Amino acid sequence: MASTLLHYAIAATSDGCVLLAGSDKGIRALFLGDDDETLEAALEEAFPGVELRRDKEAVSKWMQPVLDYLESGGDMPDLPLDPEGTPFQCRVWDLLRAIPSGETRTYGELAETLGLPGGARAVGAACAANRIAVLIPCHRAVREDGGLGGYRWGISRKRHLLELERHAQQMSLF
Asked: Which of 6, 44, 47, 166 is buried deepest, with most CB atoms within 10 A?
């Protein structure tokens, strides 16, 4: 049974704002955007009937590692996640989490790994349903031709995240 209370906070980053919401089990949502009002409206729409309580302290143990990652692109923080999705979506999300930082996979490659040749659109739909941006790194899924494709949080943010990760990987080689 899903939690009926989510605590959340919003913080500024160099690329906009981040909203992080969590249950007693872990992070349920991580949204990227341009302003608090839009992010709060998206949270309310995503979780109808759930009590949403803005409480910076309640999620601070998760927010700081996320902010550090969004600024440096270093190692992905290992934080408890509490995603809501279908079994197929959860399989896709687990596969996305296995892609090394700084690398990408095509939607088709992901579908084949799941035993669904020709299932690129289904993988894309699972990526679009992901409510935990960055920590479930759907930004690492790209089109067959290498193009970025879509991204719920904006194509410029997808490009920024990939560049940040690639830069951090290059820096770790030195």
From this structure: 6
